[in-house]
Amino acid sequence: MTSSVTAGRRRRHRRTGLACVALVCVGLFVSCTSDPDLVAGKKEASGEAPIVIGSFDFSESRILAEVFGQALEDQGYPVTRLRNVASREVMEPALEQGFVDFVPEYQGTALTFLGLGREVPVAGSRETHRKLTKVLDDKGIAVLDYAPAENKNEVVVTETTADRFGLRNISDLRAVAPELVFGGPPECPSRPLCLDGLENSYGLQFKEFRPLDAGGPLTVAALEGGEIDVGVLFTTSPAISVRRLVVLEDNRNLQPSENIVPVVRKEVAEAHGIEFTELVNSITKQLSTDTLRSLNQRVELGGEAPDEVAQRWLLLQGLIT
User: Of 166, 133, 158, 320, which is closest to residue 246 (Cα–Cα)?
Assistant: First the structure.
């Protein structure tokens, strides 16, 4: 990165918003991060303010944050991570208020959340990207290029459950749902792309909902152990093929396009200039769905750390030295 670009970087200005909103946001941060400096809303005492990259509380999001974070660091950008943010109810206001600067998002889910579930985006990747860009523009957030990689929610059962009830698509669940226990992330019941959407689009009423993790090992273990009958995993989950789980077809097209897309506070993107945007876009375009599945497998099944997996991939792609 050129010295002129480095010299042109400036310290970020925080938008405080309403005092009560800020206090709520900080309070939520106490429960979702162990970084005391970020909880207190502090920056480095001297030198350039770091770019704060946020990730949600599942392995793929942590991997993506490391991919972008390490690539930026390699080019001289100061970076801080805010890991394991519980949900968009925390992340979105944090991004708006300047507690977080950069988030690798999923564009369909982000658009649905920002639209308060009034309209589930069923358009293709390009149109979903256009709509998300328009929504976030008013919030002072830039939407960069989206990746070929896509990761949707999948409704999953074991082979035994699929054979027992003759399940091939999600609609097949309607007759037997009252007998079955459904498991997913804690926020699933209120999400239009999760349990709330399954109820509205498919008419599903399950016997019970059990809060687990976001498409991770708790959900897989609960399915295999018979604690739940139906669960939510992700398209890029390696457990689907390794554990021989059955993905039920989304025959009513509940799930929108879910390409990975970095969203960045405009103030930060403009401060760092076109070189910053081009660098991020160059990384994004190399992310495929198969790549994400492979990286997830190393973390979720191989026990490797997200930062190590991200670093190895970046090195192999020649994105860092």
Answer: 158
* H helix runs in the chain, sequence order: 3-8, 19-32, 36-39, 59-74, 88-97, 107-114, 125-137, 159-165, 195-202, 217-225, 239-242, 266-284, 289-300, 306-316
| CB hemisphere CA count around 175 (13 angstroms) | 6
pLDDT at 5: 35
Question: What letters, b where the CB count within 10 A reaches 16 and e where it falls short, cover 184-209?
Answer: bbebbeebbbbbebbeebbebebeeb
Give the DSSP letter string of 184-240: E-TTGGG-TTTHHHHHHHH----SEEEE--SSSHHHHHHHHHTS-SEEEEETT-THH
Q: Look up the pTM and report it.
A: 0.81
Q: Locate tokens 């799930």: which residue?
A: 255
Instruction: Give the pLDDT confidence of 259-282 residue by residue, as tens digits.
Output: 999 999 999 999 999 999 999 999
pLDDT digits (tens, 9 = 90+) for 179-229: 999 999 999 999 999 999 999 999 999 999 999 998 889 999 999 999 999
pLDDT per residue as tens digits for the range 123-168: 689 999 999 999 999 999 999 999 999 999 999 999 999 999 999 9
* Edge-first strand listing for the sheet containing 102-106: 79-85, 51-56, 102-106, 260-265, 141-143
Phi, psi dihedral angles at 170 (to 5 degrees): -65, -35
**Whole-number Å distance between alpha carbons of 248 and 182:** 14
